[in-house]
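Pasting two entries for a bug report.
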Amino acid sequence: MARVLVIDDETIVAKVMGEILRGEGYEVVTVSDGRTGLEYLSKYPKPDIVLTDLRMPDIDGRTVINMMNSNPELREIPKVVITGSIPDLSDFPSGDSYDAMLKKPFNINELIAIVKDLTFENDEAALTADFM
């Protein structure tokens, strides 16, 4: 199953996302800020997808995504923007720099569907079913 990195300064949101995705069989790492998320990406095995809150103190989600896209080792990792507000468009990374957006409060089924779609879990299940 895929490895997921959740970056969110709202501890309860990160914890809930982690529990939901672990329940679906994903390996999940949660961190509470952009700086720690970027440190994780530089030191540990690369996740298959990153979900990052847009508005965080210090290093925000836009910066996390921009830094990932500027690094050849990280740019291909799917990125999901999480936001609880309708921020100014200047707060968002450019539209082609992330793969999906998840609004808070999020729908559990939408969270699972986005992660499955962007980690190609649905494709793997279809391939397995075809060869059984």
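Entry 2 (this is the one that rendered wrong in the viewer):
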Amino acid sequence: MATPHIAAEKGMIAKTVLMPGDPLRSAFVAKNFLEDAMLVNNTRGVQGYTGSYQGKKVTVMASGMGMPSIGIYAHELYASYDVEQIIRIGTAGGLQEDLNLRDVLLGQAACTDSAFVTQYELPGSFSPIADFDLLMQAKKEAEKLGIPVRVGNLLSSDRFYDAGERLKDWKEMGVLGVEMEAAALYCKAAEFGKKALAICTVSDLPLKGEFTSAEERERSFTDMMKLALSLA
């Protein structure tokens, strides 16, 4: 049965969902990596496709930008479609000096400046973290594929344009990169007892003023796509 934001019928979405932010990146993955890919959702233009990769059923569906958006889609996928694991294939701004454009990051955990976590009304600060087994599997698969990765903390921010300019503070705490979705995804996985992992490609270096183009972000970040697909 369809949900308010996903048109697919039950059974049309795989147990593993790859989730880019950009709907065009979703279409790119479906076209270039999946066999017999079928459009299963296009509500609000959030394209979702289900096909097969090396004989395994896989869905790739966009999340849109920000924690409220991915929170909606992760909630409905986990709660209504029996999805077991969501792997974010997104972009991040690299913060550490030794990071370069197109480096691949595995989000072991996600700091956040968002109030998203407060909905759980916990008597303290909840730490959104990736599924350990999925993280370890990703590290091993990256080695097999010859894809260098960095494992560590991400910052999931509510602000793309931050008037406070506090990224240097997060850098000093060892945070690898800033993005806008992982913390909410990790919270939803914890809420439903499911698995989640954020794999991000460094699309820009905000402290250095280096950026990739929208087309590059859509089409050229194939290392993280291949890595995520290997986890299905």
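Dev reply: Rendering is fixed now. As a check, the viewer should reflect this: The chain has one domain: 16-229.
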